[in-house]
Amino acid sequence: ASGDAEMAVFGEAAPYLRKSEKERIAAQNKPFDAKTSVFVAHPKESFVKGTIQSRESGKVTVKTEAGEVFQMNPPKYDKIEDMAMMTHLH
């Protein structure tokens, strides 16, 4: 479709810049809880996905590597072309 023609200018890089329609639909239907999904700063990987397990007395327990915690955007925003749509920017 027209989306494919627009992406053709990027040549071999195109598949890495935009998800396929199947991947976009799967991401939109994937369960997501904005209150528990976070990114955690990681010394080697920059950021890794994490899930908040508990919040108690100002402390948060996250299931993943230790580090600073940031809010995470829903999967439907992966590789989004207009970052103005994103809720959280890091």
Outline the structure in words.
Keywords: Actin-binding, ATP-binding, Coiled coil, Motor protein, Myosin, Nucleotide-binding. It comes from Geococcyx californianus. This is MYSS protein. With 90 residues, this protein is of the alpha+beta class. It has two domains: 1-30, no CATH class; 32-89, SH3 type barrels (Roll), CATH 2.30.30. The protein has helices spanning 2-7, 14-17, 21-29, and strands at 37-42, 46-56, 59-63, 69-71. The protein has a four-stranded antiparallel sheet with strand order 3-2-1-4, with no helix packed on it. Strand 2 (46-56) and strand 3 form a beta hairpin.
Radius of gyration, whole Å: 16 Å
Major sheet characteristics = 4 strands, antiparallel
Helix content: 10-25%
Structure classification: alpha+beta
Mean pLDDT: 78
Distance between the first and last residues' Cα: 33 Å
Judging from the principal axes of the Cα atoms, what is the shape? elongated
Total of helices: 3
CATH class of the largest domain: Mainly Beta
CATH architecture of the largest domain: Roll
What is the CATH third-level topology name of the largest domain? SH3 type barrels
The overall number of domains is 2
